[in-house]
Amino acid sequence: MKPPPFEYHAPASVDEACALLASLEDAKVLAGGQSLVPLLNFRLARPAHLVDINRIADLDRIYERDGGIAVQALARMAAVEDSELVARVCPLLGLGVRLVAHRVIRNRGTVCGNLAHADPASELPAVLLALRGHVVARSKGGTRIIPASDLFTSVMQTTLAPNELLVEAWFPASTGKYAIAEESRRHGDFALAGAVRYGDQLALFGVAPTPVLADPRQPTRGLQPTGDLEATPEFRLHLVQVLTERLFAA
Amino acid sequence: MTTRWFGARVQRVEDDRLLRGNGHFTDDINESGDRALESTIVRSPFAHARIKSIDVSAARALPGVVAVYVASDLPFGGTDLPILIPHPNLTHGRTQRCLASEVVRYVGEAVAFVVAESRYIAEDAADLVAVDYEPLPVVITPEAAERAEHLVHDDVPGNVAAELIQEVGDVQKALEAGPHRKHLRLRFERGAASPMEGRAVWARWSSSEHRLTVYDSTQSPTSIRGGLAVLFGLPESDVEVIAPDVGGGFGPKIMLFYPDELLVPFAAMQLGRPVKWTEDRQEHFTAVNQERGQVHEVEVGFDGEGHVLALDVDFIHDGGAYMPYGIILPIITAAQVPGPYRVPNYRVRFRDLYTNAIPTSPYRGAGRPHACFVMERTLDAIAAELGLDRIEVRRRNLIQPDQFPYEVGVVWQDGNQVVYDSGDYPALVNRALEMLGPRPAGDHIGMGLSPYVEGTGVGPYEGAHVQVLVSGKVVAFTGIPNQGQAHATVWAQIVADQLGVEVSDVEVSSGDTRRFRWGVGTFASRAAIMAGNAMAVAAGMVAEKAKHVAAEHLEADPADLELAGGSVRVKGSPDRGIPLAAVAVLSNPMRYAFGGGTEAATQFAAKPRPGPPLPEGEQPGLEATGFFSPVGSAWAAGCHAAYVRVDPKTYRLEILKYVVVHDCGRLINPLVVEGQIEGGVAQGIGGAFYERLAYDAEGQLRNASFMEFLMPYATEIPKIEIDHIETPSPLNPLGIKGAGEAGVIPVGAVLAAAIEEALGVPITEMPLSPLKLFELFTSRQAGVVG
Amino acid sequence: MKVNGVERPPTVDARRLLSDHLRHDLGLTGTHVGCEHGVCGCCTILFDGEPVRSCLMLAVQAEGHEVTTIEGLAPPGSALHPVQQAFHECHGLQCGFCTPGFVMSVVGLLREHPNPTPEQVEEGIAGNLCRCTGYASIRRAVHRAVELTR
Questions:
Q1: Nearest-CA residue of chain A relative to C48?
Q2: How confident is the model at residue B612 (pLDDT cuts 50, 70, 90)?
Q3: Quick check: A250 pLDDT over 70?
Q4: Is residue B608 domain-shared with residue B648, that is, in the same domain?
Q5: Can you give the pLDDT at residue B610?
Q6: What distance in Å separates the CA atoms of residue A249 and residue C81, rounded to the nearest whole number?
Q7: What's the mean per-residue pLDDT of chain A?
Q8: CA-to-CA distance for C9 and C20, rounded, in angstroms?
Q9: For chain B, what is the largest distance between any 2 Cα atoms, rounded to a whole number of angstroms?
Q10: Residue A48, SS3?
Q11: Mean pLDDT across the stretch B149-161?
């Protein structure tokens, strides 16, 4: 399983990256690669161009702003996991990151990459949604803020345009009650179903094409989850009920 | 002979190079600095289709591509691959051809072979091979095969490749006469061995030496060698096959003559450069043999005390699209159903059916897990019906220690009858219960216990060659390869005991036809018994010769000599002896010394004696070749027991305690045996609750990757407690029994019973999952008959 | 890129995976390939000191960075690294295919947590697959490695 041929670009700045994304047809951004490279190896993704942003300096910061935590495009999940700042200001984010795959994957994988990849079973999109955070998208044309509620549109689809680079994700400070519960088959696997509690907000993942906000008293209302090898729609609905009860029991 | 090493927890001699990254796996091979061409196989994406045309022109034209082969390019393209184990009941045996050209019968069947400068380019070229398929109806499940609405092979009626019926006693009569009867239907889905190293082949043809050299991640280099010699019309002496380090076998690598095993050497001979092929993980799922698909209809007759009076088992085996391995798997199930129990009337019928899926051949356990599941679930059902304790029902049916040798009355996979040589099954059950201890507190907890037997050490034979070098070092060779079972350590222990040297003085080499030409293979828990005993025979012969040579020198009677401490010495007088190295020198009368003490064997230095320097009938050197061929299999046994908890909300399985009592006769190296058991249990847990092969109705495997084929990580495997008992086998001089597959065999039965109790739903199938338990539980709640 | 302390020339082919570059261009075949989708861990190496899947990196991405493979843990002829030694003592390997990946992961774990809690040990070995050992001996090896590095 080897990647198909592509043209490789390694811009040294965000501007250069955006210029490339504006001019190239059929380009994909390579950040952590933990989601993209498997797709390349399986030849399920065959982009004509690969724009590797790992050479861009000063794009890996985790810092505080506007009452929350900003995580730049090249901040690795492991760095977020280990960050004292995150632990202090937005522990819900730290909790979410800890559930993503295994540490070795988090050593390379990025928070922004995970959000842009928009796997419906991922934890971080649901955390962003529950916290009502946003992402910052840069293009040749300028900068755009996309709130979480406007970002995820469908399975692996976001409102990011092909010429846009996701440069930062912003997570409001998490105060008060927060928790994440998920059911997966093995430790580190994608969730069959998952739930994020923030205060009295509930966000679900793994049970819809995107993360969704739900009513903790009627979490399954309106949900039409799909079935796959490890969970039927009925089982997913059942798990949503169980996880919600668990999160709101305390 | 010493007994210093036998039974000792010797640390492995293999480890250093493996730990340093100096292993030599087939994909690592880069001999003679002559970079091998790489390759890939174009495979059918359809489970059943007619091939209307194959166009390789675009692939051939791609820069970097050296050759693309289809069936018509191969001199053997029209030859059916061999049936490895013919059997009179295999009346409709069909095998595939190296490359398909007319019909494909499973997703993954090989259609074209692309050779290029790199695997990357080969895959690019494979994308360009255009095959026009006309899909045909697909038969996927064994039940569908049995219904035979569609045929996998036009000339095989009912999709039945083979049918075999065996009967002991009169089952019908006993069922009718007995006070109780119960029917069960027990179903197993396919599973996959999934070793961490996939398959790989590397080949080079040297026209100057007229020699074909092949490295192959196989469990039987001698068989591959023989097959290649026949296929290419080469003398066997011109073909050498080596299994270098192999990253796990577990069965699928004993399947022989996968198409690549012929294509790679062929291409090497054609192209005048080494050629290699290394499968990737996706290919492994679609092209490497699997097994475990079976459906069993069981009818059991029993009395009020739970004694089994009669057992009728009728099962169908999912044989896949072709049957190169014959009908060994269902034969094993049929033979092993009675297990450690007395079954006075037993009838077993099986039909081996074709399906449009990968051919089946052994995967660790090889039919025994099913047999164990059938018997154990049946006993649990009897206990439930009568309201008796499950363990007590087992005790009442167990074969007792004074009943050996015990004839079961059915045929075994080596063609002999099944006869258990020795064992103590009640002791296994008692010890397992003791280790298991009291039930933990809490809700939704269940217990499972399953004894089992394991037929091990089938023939026909294995051999070994042992030589003491003039340096004093000992080298030992055998024909069968290893895949991590510590053969080099274990056999060194046996040889070291025979020769009175250190384990570190013995260097074992295996699976290399250049070093030892005869052998069968590593499979069916046979290597320790077969090669181990052969090593003992050969080393024993060397020891006798050493005594003979030394006796002359020491002016003693050979019967008064012993080998110990690296010397041959007089018993009771450890100072009167000569080093083994010196004996090696003396065993080879020399004219020209070349240092290393060899002066002592030259004609003026050596002790004069009458007769020719090399006595009649003798050979020079301190070496011997020995073989071991068993009269019958040695039957290992064991008992597993566990407590589990099933979460009533998430249906998650938590194994609270798992214990194993194991009897493989005399243990050579407990460290190695425990490792085999721990690995086997993990594989069993994976196969019972995490892994499955999700074929859809079109025969597509929907989870052909490690992301979706859920092999357990460390976090899914609980601590396992192990104890041993030893009932030596009378069938081989070392008294040993095999241990390789033991860990896997009863796990399904144990977990099924425990989950059934924990959740209160009948479990009649494998594998399980939280989804499966949710569905069983909710449908039961809804009153639907399960 | 620097591999095991030695400067190596860059790779030409952008799509060449780091795992293939190490194995076949540099001849360091101790890093193994089990899946090429990042799940099995056989290809784990240290990238700037941290465990990373070499099958999920392009070789070009390693330029300017430091890669440590299994061969770099203990120079030839010298004693085994404590983690390697511990695996040996505890029978933590059978076929040896997953072993380099495990060893590098454990080296990474112990660099981060020289005295790991049982939970940290579990987390540290949770991302590598082994089909031979059933993991018990690997767990024991990690605890032994902690003792040896103390």
A1: A107
A2: confident
A3: no
A4: no
A5: 81
A6: 49
A7: 97
A8: 15
A9: 97
A10: coil
A11: 98
Angle at A110 between CA A108 and CA A111, to 5 degrees: 150
- Domain of A70? 62-172
- Domain span at residue B671 reads 294-458+631-781
B657: left (phi over 0), alpha (psi -120 to 50) or beta: beta
Q: CA C17, CA C23: separation in Å to the nearest integer?
A: 10
Q: What angle do CA C29, C18, B64 make, to 5 degrees?
A: 90
Q: Show which of B590, B609, B628 is a domain's final residue.
A: B628
Cα–Cα dist B713/A186, whole Å: 7
Give the integer Cα–Cα distance in Å for B224 and B264: 12
Task: Render pLDDT for B555-581 as a digit per residue (tens, 0 to 9).
Answer: 899 999 999 999 999 999 888 899 999
Q: What value does the mean pLDDT take over residues A61-79?
A: 98
Cβ neighbour number for residue B454 with a 10 Å cutoff: 31
- Chain B environment of A187 (Cβ under 8 Å): 713, 715-716
Pair A167, A224 in one domain: no
B316-369 per-position pLDDT tens digit: 999 999 999 999 999 999 999 999 999 999 999 999 999 999 999 999 999 999
Write out chain C residues lying below 8 Å of B21, CB-based.
28-31, 69-71, 100
Q: How far is the first Cα of chain B from the last one, in angstroms, to the nearest whole number?
A: 61
On whether any CB of chain A is under 8 Å from the CB of B123, the answer is: yes
pLDDT at B1: 67
Which one of B30, B194, B707 has the shortest CB-CB distance to C131? B194
pLDDT in tens, B414-470: 889 999 999 999 999 999 999 999 999 999 999 999 999 999 999 999 999 999 999
B720 → chain C, closest CA residue: C136
- The helix or strand, by DSSP H or E, that contains position B262, with its residue range, turns out to be helix B259-271
Q: How confident is the model at residue B786 (pLDDT cuts 50, 70, 90)?
A: very low
Asked if C42 reaches chain B (Cβ–Cβ under 8 Å), the answer is yes
Q: Is C56 on the interface with B (CB under 8 A)?
A: no
Tokens describing residue B17: 């190079």
Note whether B340 and B437 are same-domain residues: yes
Q: Does C61 touch chain A (CB under 8 A)?
A: yes
Asked, for residue B399, whether it belongs to a domain, the answer is: yes
- Quote the strand ranges of B100-256, DSSP E: 103-104, 110-116, 130-135, 160-168, 180-188, 200-206, 211-216, 239-242
B699 alpha carbon, distance to own chain's centre: 27
Calpha distance A194→A202 (Å, rounded): 10
The CATH-assigned architecture of domain C2-72 is Roll (3.10)
Cis check: omega of the bond before B767, within 30 degrees of 0? yes
Q: Specify whether B114 is located in the same domain as B49.
A: yes
The Cα–Cα gap between B491 and B514 comes to 19
> What's A12's domain CATH number?
3.30.43.10
Residue B399 is given by DSSP the state P
Q: Please say whether the beta carbons of B357 and B388 come within 8 A.
A: no
Contact B494, B540 (CB under 8 A): no
- Contact across the interface for A103 and C124, Cβ inside 8 Å: yes
* Domain spans of chain C, in order of start: 2-72, 82-149
Residue pairs spanning A and C at CB distance below 8 A: 80
This complex has an ipTM of 0.98
Write out pLDDT tens, residues B700-757.
999 999 999 999 999 999 999 999 999 999 999 999 999 999 999 999 999 999 999 9
